[in-house]
Design brief:
The protein contains four helices and five strands. It has 116 residues and is an alpha+beta fold.
Length: 116
Amino acid sequence: MTSLVPKDKRQLRACLICGIVLNHHTFRDSGCPNCEGLIRMRGSNETVTECTSSTFDGLMAMFNPSESWVAKYSHVNTSKPGMYAAHVSGRIPEDIEDKLAQKGYTYHPRDGSAED
């Protein structure tokens, strides 16, 4: 089983779509464990930079997101277990937001700019 806590504290970033916190290299090498089917971060430093942020507040450990009211409120109740940021500064580029909408995914900005 892989550790839920990133081992390398340097270069931690939070996904702007799901909020999972990993280091830059993990996003680049493996992609986002939740969003890879929506956007392809794997192998693309540019996409990792555009779709993640190093500026985030609060961490939530999600061990069983499907049964957590916090995960439901944070829109990660269908996501993989891991460490998630409570708030992530920044937004995904408009073209990526458009691609998500075309795939039927509702983007919930993690910077607090959208009301639930």
